[in-house]
Write a structure and sequence with these properties.
This protein is mostly beta strands. About 15% of the residues lie in helices and about 45% in strands. The longest helix is centred in the middle third of the chain and has 12 residues.
């Protein structure tokens, strides 16, 4: 199975861009257990950009009462790529 790939890159300043191999985790209603794991590859310049892309792609929601996001991610591998 090939991991999905998010490749929208908007780098105008010549900053390095990286190919991040991550695992997206969907948490349960209480945020104390991982319900699903999805491997994917994201091309982004920073980890903040990855977080925004993952939240948008998976429709992540924030629980104000329990204070956690429905999805998060963990890094598996990263490589520098030419944009």
């Amino acid at each position: 199975m090939t991991a999905p790939r998010l490749t929208t890159v908007n780098v105008d300043n010549g900053a390095p861009v990286y190919e991040w191999h991550i695992e997206v985790r969907r948490l349960n209603h209480y945020g104390d257990r991982i319900e699903e794991r999805t491997p994917m590859v994201v091309v982004a310049a920073t980890r903040y950009e990855i977080t925004a892309k993952v939240r948008a792609a998976f429709g992540a929601t924030y629980d104000d009462f329990r204070r956690f996001w429905s999805h998060d991610w963990t890094l598996r591998e990263v490589r520098e790529v030419t944009p």
